[in-house]
Write a structure and sequence with these properties.
The complex is a heterodimer. Chain A is α/β, with parallel strands linked by helices. Helix content of chain A is 52%, strand content 12%. Chain A has eleven helices and seven strands. Chain A has a five-stranded parallel β-sheet with strand order 2-1-3-6-7, sandwiched between helices. Chain A has a two-stranded antiparallel ribbon with strand order 4-5. In chain A, helix 5 (107-116) links the parallel strand 6 and strand 7 (120-123). In chain A, helix 7 (147-158) packs across helix 9 (184-194) and helix 9 (184-194) crosses helix 11 (210-238). Chain A is globular. Chain B has 15 helices and 20 strands. In chain B, strand 16 (548-556) and strand 17 (559-566) form a beta hairpin. Chain B folds into three domains: 2-168, Sandwich (Jelly Rolls); 186-394, Rhopdopsin 7-helix transmembrane proteins (Up-down Bundle); 484-631, Heat Shock Protein 90 (2-Layer Sandwich), CATH 3.30.565.10. Chain B is an alpha+beta fold. The radius of gyration of chain B is 59 Å and the shape is rod-shaped. The chains are: A alpha/beta, B alpha+beta. Chains A and B meet through helix 6 and helix 7 of A and helix 11 and helix 12 of B.
């Protein structure tokens, strides 16, 4: 297995361990009103520098020359999918945190985005207050998650065809292979989320801090992304594209 | 050949002339060559059945072979034949050879009995069909003049008399004897066995496959042939008491064989002549009946029957050859070739019997093995053709099945595609209807409200649009997920959304819906249930100012009980008349669901909305259940964690 490909996140402890940094933000969104809304929300969070892009092309150009700490990317863009941009940036700008903005928010699309390397997502339909809360959570190092997505993630890890029938790994195992699996705690959290419990409720039930719960969900996303990469490498190797 | 017989019987003068010519050619009454004395002439004297000695008078010179019926046409009984020869040396044994005798004989040399058939009167032994061979030695044999007397018992109707006779070198005569036995007895024994085998084999084939009458006729023809051949092999007329009965059967069998063979040829050539066939079968049946009923008449007249049979046989063969020549099909030509052979042999034999050709060999006796080869070829060929046809049929069938399968698959694919397209179209229409019924209603309501309230404040308008947005979310969730997710799953998403909003305004919510797994509503009913709950929660979030809220769903049999209660400000149910705030739309939702709804509230002591709804849709005709709104006497106190 191409474990050499997995340490992308190991090189970015700032993203993996702490939250996103809103000092410089790139907003990729084609709808000017939505873009204005995101800018307004970011300014409420005291974001220092916010740069806007209305298309993938513009976003690529900006990302090439500027060093952004975070990018908020809409999925449905006029010249392509935001998920594409997420995948490109994951490899080319490993230090940039990627958050997806989705209009509809179906679980399939979100899982694709997370597998491509997004560390979180925002749903446009949510109230401003809710979006602010989500961004704040991300800044703290957490990640929002909703029941449908949680259920889809559980399916992803525990479906028999995934090839690695995920008996919940004990605690953080050694090596990358074990890191692909969910820990018991992570699975537990996903179960609660899928049943509609809020992070606060989960934190109360599990006697954890709310931040810890958010941190766990973030770890889950990370594993999803790592998994998708190792799967890709494995696939490439089996087809003889890699040594 | 029979017809020839008769011709000659009617023309004795011609016969005598012919015989005389033959005798003149040969020039002596006995020819001596290579130590063999061949008797050309003998003296014959008739006598009664039981005479033991020939009389001294009445000896008539006759030429050998002799058929006494030509001379004494009505004489049934015994005729003595006397022959003499000069034996130079009696030191070595000599052989005595009789080619054929009709029918039973006794042989005397110099007055002493050498051989006697078992039955010299009826039922007459049928010894004379086969050649006879004896060794004679001194003292019976004398040097000088020896006398051979043959006593022949016969019937005028069956060509009675004595065939060729010779004495002399035992080795040479033994060879002659053996050749005769081989031709006239062994060959028929062989034919008989073959007929028995063929009759059994094809009889079985026919029994197992009645449709192929071809094989049935062939089996019957073989049985007839078997009876015919039996005449050359049997040594007595057993089981019959008389020679007449035996010959009657023989003739009838001959006729039956001819008829069955003709039928076989017709079937083989794939011809059907029902009238002629019926006549033939009737003729055969009558012949058999007459043979059984009046053997004494039919026996002596067997020649008529036999001639008829032969004529029929050859007619059918000629006809068949005609068919074969016309069709040129190998299936017909090859058997036709084999059928020409016995005809040639028959013509030859007729000429031999009539003396036109001088030979003692009757080819008919020899053609049977050749015919057997022909018949074997024909039947094997048919069998192979049938097999090939079956194989070809199987191949064609497989091909046809493949083709049909392909066509069927294509049809099914097409139908499936069509069905899929139809299903998709139906799904889309359903979705459109759901959107129209669900979301469209909210949108129209919002527009109506905006129109009815000119100068509405922005906040109110935003609230209204947000409620439309929430409704859209519910429509999406209930439409997309209600089919494959149970109410618990829908509630999870709903709870997640509401929680986040209630947390923002500082309401602590307690949710109880643990036993809802597996409960499924139709999408439209699920939507209405969620809308009802959302409406109630919206009221809590916007108007109650509550700190805590409880949402409880519980299944009781087929009925879902729900409760949304808060510890907020409450309101005066009686005063509002049930039309306040969000209460009106609550009632509308409940009515749509056919739900029972109760709203209990009093200013200062919270609100409790409870109700029940059937999981399955109630009958369309049943009236919506009552919606009651009652003032609550005392707050039950919403659940606090």
């Amino acid at each position: 297995m191409g474990y050499a490909f997995t340490p992308a996140y190991r090189n970015r402890p700032d993203v993996a361990q702490s939250g996103i940094n809103l000092s410089s933000t790139l907003v990729v969104e084609d709808d000017p009103r939505m873009r204005a809304r995101m800018v307004r929300l970011l300014s409420q969070l005291n974001a220092a520098e916010v740069v806007e892009a209305g298309s993938l092309e513009a976003a690529r150009a900006l990302a090439e020359h500027g060093a952004f700490a975070v990018a908020l990317v809409d999925i449905g863009l006029p010249d392509g999918s935001g998920i594409e941009f997420v995948r490109e940036m994951r490899d080319r700008k490993p230090l940039m945190a990627l958050v997806v903005i989705s209009a509809y928010g179906d679980a399939e699309t979100l899982v694709d985005a997370l597998r491509a390397g997004a560390i979180g997502y925002l749903l446009k339909e949510r109230e401003d207050e809710e979006l602010l809360q989500a961004l704040q959570a991300m800044r703290r190092g957490g990640a929002p998650i909703d029941p449908f997505l949680a259920r889809r993630l559980l399916d992803h890890w525990f479906a028999p065809e995934s090839g690695d029938p995920g008996q919940p790994a004990s605690e953080e195992g050694d090596g990358s292979r074990c890191s692909r699996r969910l820990t018991g705690r992570e699975r537990e959290i996903l179960m609660y989320v899928s049943r509609g419990f809020s992070n606060r409720e989960i934190a109360e039930i599990l006697a954890l801090s709310r931040f810890t719960v958010e941190d766990h969900t973030k770890r889950i996303y990370r594993k999803l992304s790592v998994n998708s990469r190792t799967e890709a490498v494995f696939e490439a190797k089996s087809q003889g594209l890699l040594p | 050949m029979g017809s020839m017989h008769r011709t000659f019987r009617r023309l004795p003068i011609l016969f005598v002339l012919l015989v005389l010519a033959v005798v003149a050619c040969r020039g002596a009454d006995r020819a001596t060559q290579d130590g063999i004395v061949q008797f050309r002439q003998a003296e014959a004297a008739p006598s009664r059945w039981h005479a033991h000695q020939p009389g001294d008078r009445g000896w008539t010179p006759v030429a050998l072979p002799d058929d006494w019926a030509r001379r004494w046409s009505r004489h049934d009984g015994v005729v003595w034949y006397r022959m003499r020869w000069w034996q130079r040396d009696a030191g070595a044994p000599i052989a005595l050879w009789l080619d054929r005798v009709s029918l039973a004989d006794a042989i005397y040399v110099n007055g002493s009995l050498v051989y006697q058939a078992p039955h010299l009167d009826e039922p007459l032994s049928r010894i004379g069909v086969s050649p006879q061979y004896f060794l004679v030695d001194a003292p019976l044999l004398r040097a000088g003049l020896n006398t051979l007397v043959v006593r022949v018992s016969g019937l005028a109707a069956y060509a009675p008399g004595l065939g060729q006779v010779a004495v002399g070198d035992p080795a040479r005569l033994l060879a002659r004897y053996r050749r005769g036995v081989w031709q006239r007895v062994d060959m028929h024994l062989f034919d008989l066995s073959v007929d028995a085998v063929l009759a059994t084999l094809f009889g079985m084939v026919w029994l197992l496959r009645r449709r192929d009458t071809l094989y049935g006729w062939f089996a019957l023809a073989s049985v007839g042939g078997l009876l015919f051949d039996l005449d050359f092999v049997a040594r007595s007329p057993w089981p019959f008491a008389t020679t007449n009965a035996w010959m009657a059967l023989h003739a009838a069998a001959h006729m039956a064989t001819a008829i069955c063979f003709a039928q076989f040829l017709l079937r083989y050539a794939d011809r059907r002549w029902p009238r002629i066939e019926r006549s033939m079968i009737a003729l055969g049946a009558i012949t058999l009946a007459v043979a059984a009923a009046w053997p004494g008449w039919l026996g002596p007249h067997h020649v008529i029957i036999q001639n008829g049979a032969v004529a029929l046989m050859y007619a059918s063969i000629v006809l068949f050859i005609g068919f074969a020549l016309r069709s040129r099909a190998m299936e017909l030509v090859v058997p036709a070739m084999f059928l020409v052979l016995p005809m040639v042999a028959a013509v030859h034999d007729s000429l031999v019997q009539s003396g036109v050709i001088s030979s003692t060999t009757y080819l008919s006796d020899l053609t049977s093995p050749v015919s057997l080869v022909g018949i074997s070829f024909v039947l094997a060929y048919r069998f192979v053709v049938a097999m090939r046809r079956a194989e070809g049929f199987n191949a064609a069938l497989a091909l046809e099945v493949d083709r049909s399968t392909l066509k069927l698959r294509e049809t099914l694919d097409r139908e499936q595609t069509l069905a899929l397209a139809n299903a998709r179209m139906a799904e889309r229409l359903e979705l459109v209807r759901d959107l129209h019924d669900g979301f469209g209603g909210s949108l129209l309501g919002a527009i109506e409200q905006l129109q009815a309230t000119p100068g509405m404040e922005a906040d109110t308008a935003i609230e209204m649009l947000k409620s439309v947005r929430d409704d859209l979310r519910l429509v999406i969730e209930s439409t997309v997920y209600a089919e494959d997710r149970c109410l618990a799953d829908l509630m999870a998403a709903f709870r997640h959304r509401c929680c986040s909003r209630m947390e923002l305004v500082g309401i602590r919510a307690e949710w109880q819906f643990d036993d809802l797994a597996g409960v499924r509503f139709t999408p439209s009913r699920a939507l209405d249930v969620l809308r009802l709950l959302q409406e109630a929660l919206n009221n809590v979030i916007k108007h109650s100012g509550a700190r805590a809220c409880r949402v409880r769903l519980e299944l009781a049999g087929d009925v879902l009980q729900f409760e949304v209660s808060d510890d907020g400000c409450g309101f005066d149910v009686a005063a509002s008349g049930g039309v306040g705030a969000g209460m009106a739309s609550l009632r509308v939702r409940a009515a749509r669901l056919g739900a029972w709804l109760s709203i209990q509230s009093r200013p200062g002591s919270g609100t409790c909305v409870t109700g029940t709804v059937r999981v399955r849709e109630p009958d369309a005709m049943s009236a919506p259940e009552a919606v009651t709104m009652v003032g609550r006497p005392a707050p039950p106190g919403p659940g606090r964690p």
